[in-house]
Structures are given as C-alpha cells and as structure tokens.
Amino acid sequence: MAAKALIVGLGNPGKSYVGTRHNIGFAALEKLAAKHSLAFKQVSQFKGSMAQGSVGTSSVILLMPLTFMNLSGESVAQVMRYFQIDLSRLLILVDDVAIPLGQLRLRINSGSGGHNGLKSVEECLQTNRYPRLRIGVGDRKQGALSEHVLGRFTPDEEKLLPGVLDRAVQAIEIWLDKGLTSAMDFANPSTPSIGEEQ
Hints:
Elements: E1 5-9, H1 24-35, E2 41-43, E3 48-55, E4 58-65, H2 72-83, E5 90-96, E6 104-108, H3 116-125, E7 131-136, H4 145-149, H5 155-178, H6 180-187
C-alpha cells in the first residue's frame, strides 16, 4: 500500500462562506468524504477539520484548515509534520478565478497565482513542489476580485456545480490510484482555451 496521502481543501470557515466560490475546495473535499463514508471532526491541535480512512485502497487524511484562507499553511504544515506525510502525497484543492467553471487544472511546481491560501501553504512548507488541483470558478466580469471569490454562484452556475465537483472527486481518486500523470491526463484540457497561455 502506498504511503498515507493528505488531501487538503482550502476555504474559509463559517456558515457565511458556505457556497461561495472561494470555498469550492471545501465543497470538493466534502463530496469526496461523503462518497467514501468519511466523517469530519474538528481537531484544535491541527487548526482544522479532519477525516481519516480509506479511498479505495489508499489510506488518506482529509483536511479543511479552519484558520481562514490566508493562514491555511499553518494547519497543513502541522499535519504534514505530525503524520510525516511525503510532499508527493500532498494534494491541495483550490479555487481558481482564471479558469472557467467546469474546468480543472492539476499542476505541480507552479506558483500561487496570487491565491492567498496557496501563498500560505508555500510559505509554511518552504516549497511549491506539491500537486494542486485548481477548480475553475469562472472569470469575474466586473467588480472587485474579493467580491467575486467571496460571492455565490449564479443560478445557472449552481446547476453545473454537481458535475464540477464529481469531476474533481474523480481526479482525486485517479491521483490516489494511478498517480499524478494519469490524474493530469484526466483533469487537464488537451487544448488551451481561447486566450489562455500555452
């Protein structure tokens, strides 16, 4: 059996943030947990809500940091150290405003892209050499970025969300079962979208 994996969903704690674009990392992790009958419980030692068990044949820890987004790395680093998780067995689930809703990007060694949660993780781990699954939450058409990411999905977007989350869960399962390359083949579009850098 492969070494234990740590899968982290990034988001903000509290009822007021449930259903916002910034919390799609939480939503994807919760969907994975529900599918595999894993229950979360708050663990103050790790500043997060955690679930442990199995996804298929893989032993996993699921973590939702409860520190607010810009301090997420504190919780991640503590769990990594305590459970001696190898960097290659860490997967971060995160929202991305530069990707259309319905698309995923699985990358390793990439920058934070200005995302405060990823910035915090990189600062606390002192590296960006870990896989992160970016879940597109749609481009903002107008207004401030903060209002966009902390806002809720439109009714039309809400209809797409179950499929988006199902696909994110499938990407995680492939990563656990077959590794990063297979998961990237599944998650990443084969051709760039219009206007996207290649």
